[in-house]
Specification:
By secondary structure, the protein is α+β, with helices and mostly antiparallel strands. Helix content is 38%, strand content 31%. The chain has one domain: Murine Class I Major Histocompatibility Complex, H2-DB, Chain A, domain 1 (2-Layer Sandwich). Strands 4-3-2-1-5-6-7-8 form an eight-stranded antiparallel beta sheet. About 4% of the residues have low confidence. One of its GO terms (cellular component) is extracellular space. Keywords: Glycoprotein, Membrane, Transmembrane, Transmembrane helix.
């Protein structure tokens, strides 16, 4: 079976309020937990100072999203619940090959996915829709949601799994310690990039 590091981030928006849940697992073991704006490190994967900075980064991006949704709801109220799910991570197979992914669903339907080799977002919405088109265009604008995300998924995430494999085998790894929750930070930034497209374009024009 492949070794895996995966993150799941759930966002629910209703009446202008945003609720967040999420977790990360390393080799099937819970490593991080997200509840509201509170992010906790279940496994001691980062030293306290680095972890404090990472928590602040995630809270900042989620705060941006929350404030944006509140502002949009004031201008254009949405009287129903929207649910957004981001699933990302990487897998390392016994033969040394790896596979990384980032998938987004909106209200239970495939919405967008990230093609890691080319650092491009792809629309998965079952119809040509201004919401998906706008969100896709916004995400493609920023290096944080294209090349930085590609590097995290294709390099940093896989390096963590290789280091985990080395530790399991009793070997010393010379790789630098990569903050796993960086993926949650990038995932939160991607949420900000999608917020306008999803919540402003819904029921109106972009």
């Amino acid at each position: 079976a492949p070794l895996a590091f995966t993150m799941l981030q759930l966002t629910r928006v209703s009446d202008g309020h945003s609720d967040f849940w999420g977790n990360a697992t390393l080799d099937g073991q819970l490593s991080h937990r997200l509840e509201g704006l509170n992010l906790s490190q279940v496994l001691p994967l980062e030293p306290p100072a680095a972890w404090a900075r990472r928590k602040e980064d995630v809270a900042t991006y989620l705060g941006y999203f929350t404030n944006m949704v509140k502002f949009i709801n004031m201008e254009r109220p949405i009287n129903y619940t929207q649910s957004l799910c981001c699933h990302l991570g990487c897998r390392l197979f016994p033969n040394g090959t790896a596979h990384s992914f980032y998938e987004v669903t909106l209200n239970g339907t495939a919405f967008l996915s990230f093609h890691v080799p080319t650092a491009t977002w792809q629309r998965r919405w079952p119809r040509q829709d201004t919401v998906a088109t706008f969100a896709h265009r916004e995400l493609m604008k920023y290096p944080q949601t294209t090349y930085d995300l590609q590097h995290f998924l294709n390099v940093s995430c896989v390096d963590v799994l290789r280091a985990q494999t080395a530790r399991t085998a009793g070997k010393q790894s010379s790789r630098s310690h990569t903050p796993l929750v960086l993926g949650l930070t990038l995932g939160a930034f991607a949420l900000v990039g999608m917020a306008v497209g999803i919540f402003l374009c819904t029921g109106g024009r972009c």
